[in-house]
Amino acid sequence: MTTAAIQQTVAATESAIQLCMAAMEQAKSLQIQICVCVVDLAGEPLAAIRMNGAPLISPEVARKKAFTAVSFGKPTLDWQTNLANRQNVLLGLQSEPNFTFLGGGLPIKVNDTVVGAIGVSGGNEQQDIECATHAIQSVFHNN
Q1: Residue 4 has what pLDDT?
Q2: What angle do helix axes 13-30 and 125-140 make, rounded to 10 degrees?
Q3: Which stretch is the leader sequence (predicted)?
Q4: CB 140: neighbour CB atoms within 10 A?
Q5: Rounded to whole angstroms, how far apart are CA atoms 114 and 129?
């Protein structure tokens, strides 16, 4: 009898907290207030933070961005291009409660393997993406 083993790399809580702090650091430099949510492979939150003054809707939007990014393993902004000419698919996905195509959700990859995702909300799309990108680069590429 053979035994199959599955090894999976996952985001750790400590890394999730570091990602939140790094995103918040970037937001301060941009003079914006954001919310950040980091999720594991199952889309469950590992860490989340809301800066004082961030829009009240932003915690949920950040969570949806992270959930969407981990679900498909790609940035949420990609959906705008991918669905530009596919209105039926866009309408179907928009009816899903945890899906968003707003920019600011990025998968977190370690050695080309998705281990979780980060979602940022509170600035414009480019600012949210910049904060999420800064967080990932700070935590996973400066070791």
Answers
A1: 53
A2: 130
A3: none
A4: 16
A5: 18
